[in-house]
Amino acid sequence: MTVKIRKYKRGGFEVDIRFTYPDGSPFRRRFKAPVTSVSAAKRWGEAREAAFLREPPPSERPPEEPKKEVPTLSEFGPRFIENYARANRQKASTIAAKRSILKKHLYVRLGEKRLDEIDDEDVQALKSSLAQHSRKTVNNVLAVLGKLLKVAVKWKVIPKLPCTIELMKVSNLVVKFYEFGQYKRLVEAASRYDVRALVLVLLGGDAGLRMGEMLALRWCDVDFRRKQIVIQQAVWQGVVDVPKSGHGRIVPMTAALASALQRARHLRGELVLYRDDDGTPTPAPATHATVRAWLEACERRAVLEVEGSLHKLRHTFCSHLAMRGAPAKAIQELAGHENLMTTLRYMHLSPAARRGAIDLLNTRDEREAEEGIFGDILETGSK
Q: Which CATH entry fits the domain spanning 180-349: 1.20.272.10, 1.10.443.10, 3.60.15.10, 3.40.50.2300?
């Protein structure tokens, strides 16, 4: 066992520790001593030597596990899609959105970075690169990145999250909908144009169906006896899936919707909405382009702004319910909102809610009104 001390030309001391383990394995390490004198360096080296001798010799140590190679974002992305999104049976549209965000935004900006190298500055640079997009889009991109990294930690691909992801604040913008008069004109125009267009308008404006739910609606989902529609599936790019909220719902039919569906009944197939007969043996189901064209034609005939937005009909459904005083919880259940916060976007339109709040002040305890200032005001007003 030897501990040798050598002096560096530029100051300080090198400690050279050399010995042989009982099994014959040689050991040698050299360090720069953290002290400024020869004697102190000697004592420090001997203490280090004693610590090394207490360790088991190399022949008795367990084999070291090979260090895992951390994949880049581009390498891990397909695993995330297949083994997480698909394995958890997420909706086809959700999987497609994740894949699109990875391809268009994350691979371009961070694809060559190892997962454990993505830091806070990279996240901020990603936000800067998305400056031309809406805040909601930026948050969608950040959410996918955050989930991917959390999954990588869960699968022990990386030991911990390498960065902090903070979503951007999104203002709750007022949604666009048809006013009462506009909606009436749209329904009248649809009734003159095509019964299928009328069904389409009323499914959105009187029942709140999403576009995919309209396209997937079957006659077996329409209960004329109970006057209700059972919404239990949606279609997206030809793939039949569950509705957006992940579960079905039941929506009572208005008299206008029930009448339109009765008029539109056919024997072409199980779906409610089909395109025009093109002579093929199998009738072609309506598509997004089909129903959008129907709605645009009705908007032109009703002398409205031509947008072809099926979701505007759904906003109309929720807005009109709120404006007529429907409770937020009822609107949430009818529209199939998973989160009540989504429903509350419409409640500022409810005059009944505002009137009800003020009525709380009008129903103060009579004795309190008589004894306090409110009583004086009421008396003065009555005179």
A: 1.10.443.10
